[in-house]
Design a protein that fits this description.
about 375 residues, about 45% helix, L-fuculose-1-phosphate Aldolase, 2 domains, alpha+beta, single chain, seven-stranded mixed β-sheet, four-stranded mixed β-sheet
Length: about 375
């Protein structure tokens, strides 16, 4: 019965693009002995029973009694081994969400984790932590930005233990800086109530909504750009073009570009690469793309062109669409963050960690 409810509410929330994009977000449900967690890279909107991984709760709990190396690669490799060892028999071919251990910490039957642009307008803003305390008081836990995987889980473990001692109850809402929101409850209805509590409080603070409608762009230049991108990336590439009002604003000059140049959250790194390429003269695209590749070690997925807006480029239609969706998500976050002191992107250190993190590399290939 618990698994059926898990599938049902996962599909419900996953079908709402205001809450979930691409392979973002994850869900879980617990019985006394096991936890069902979304498989890495699967889509919440279409997930079925087989998309969840059955985990042993006792073995997940044991992970927090261990000491892991400080070295990122060594720590995450050993952590992944222990996470895999916690899978129940018959689940060997599946890979659980990277946030499985964090889900296991909640003392509630159901857990919902999402990265909505509205919420991230707060969590990815300069004044986010202060404003969250003002809006929610001690009804939530705020987690400062940190590396995902074991580090995030261990920090949450300590904060949730402290919260329970101080408040006399288990934590059920967590806001993660530069990441998203967790809500937990013993019924599916409680999840909706708690998520609604968070989003309504934030929405009441919003003055300007993002404008993703088509703006006034240079038609001749946009077509020329499209042709040059095709020649530069080869005819096999798929290009999505979006001359939205917001993308035209940020592509006006180098100063406006700063609002979205660095990524706000891990999903943006995974699906549209960490940095867009900015172009003033479309004729310079070939050389600018090569300079970008040499500097970063990969090709750009988002190209912002002055007076034209945003182009998403990938080898597949799915990859191009996902890159475009996540870049639009960044534009929405930047707009919402204006209400909380302006945007606060991830640190360069964290961005580099995500770029090289095996777990996110795996996830990006699944959706």
């Amino acid at each position: 019965m618990v698994l059926e409810k898990l599938v049902e509410f996962s599909n419900f929330y996953g079908s709402n693009e205001e809450l979930v994009l691409a392979g973002g977000g994850n869900t879980s449900a617990k019985t006394d002995e096991v936890m069902y967690i979304k498989g890495s890279g699967t889509s919440l909107s279409t997930i079925t029973r087989d998309g969840f991984v059955k985990m042993n709760r006792a073995k997940l709990k044991d992970i927090f009694t261990k000491t892991y190396p400080d070295n990122d690669k060594e720590r995450e490799a050993l952590f992944l081994e222990d996470l895999s060892a916690a899978k129940e028999k018959g689940e060997e071919s599946k890979r659980p969400s990277v946030e499985t251990t964090l889900h296991s910490l909640f003392e509630y039957t159901f857990v919902l984790h999402l990265h909505p642009a509205l919420v991230n307008g707060l969590t990815c803003s300069q004044n986010g932590k202060v404003k969250a305390e003002e809006l929610f008081g001690d009804s939530i836990i705020w987690v400062d930005v940190c590396k995902p995987g074991y580090i995030l889980s261990k920090i949450c473990f300590d904060l949730m233990e402290e919260y329970k001692k101080e408040k006399g109850k288990a934590a059920d809402i967590i806001l993660l800086e530069n990441h998203g929101v967790f809500v937990a409850g013993n019924t599916v209805e409680e999840l909706g109530e708690k998520l609604g509590f968070v989003t309504s409080k934030i929405r009441n603070e919003i003055i300007r909504e993002p404008d993703l409608s088509s703006g006034e762009f240079d038609g001749d230049k946009s077509m020329s750009t499209f042709n040059i991108l095709n020649e530069t990336f080869s005819d096999d590439c798929v290009i999505s073009y979006d001359p939205s009002v917001e993308s035209l604003k940020v592509s006006e000059n180098e100063e406006t570009l700063k609002k979205i140049y660095k990524p706000f959250n891990p999903d943006q790194v995974v699906y549209c690469k960490p940095y867009p390429l900015y172009i003033v003269d479309e004729k310079t695209i070939p050389e600018k793309v090569e300079e970008y590749r040499v500097k970063n070690g990969f090709l750009p997925k988002i190209i912002l062109v002055k007076n034209c807006g945003a182009y998403a480029v990938d080898v597949s239609e799915k990859g191009s669409d996902n890159a475009s969706m996540l870049f639009n998500d960044a534009l929405k976050i930047a707009c919402y963050a204006e209400n909380f002191g302006g945007g606060k992107p991830m640190t360069d250190e964290l961005t580099d960690f995500i770029v090289n993190w095996e777990a996110e590399s795996y996830r990006s290939k699944q959706v």
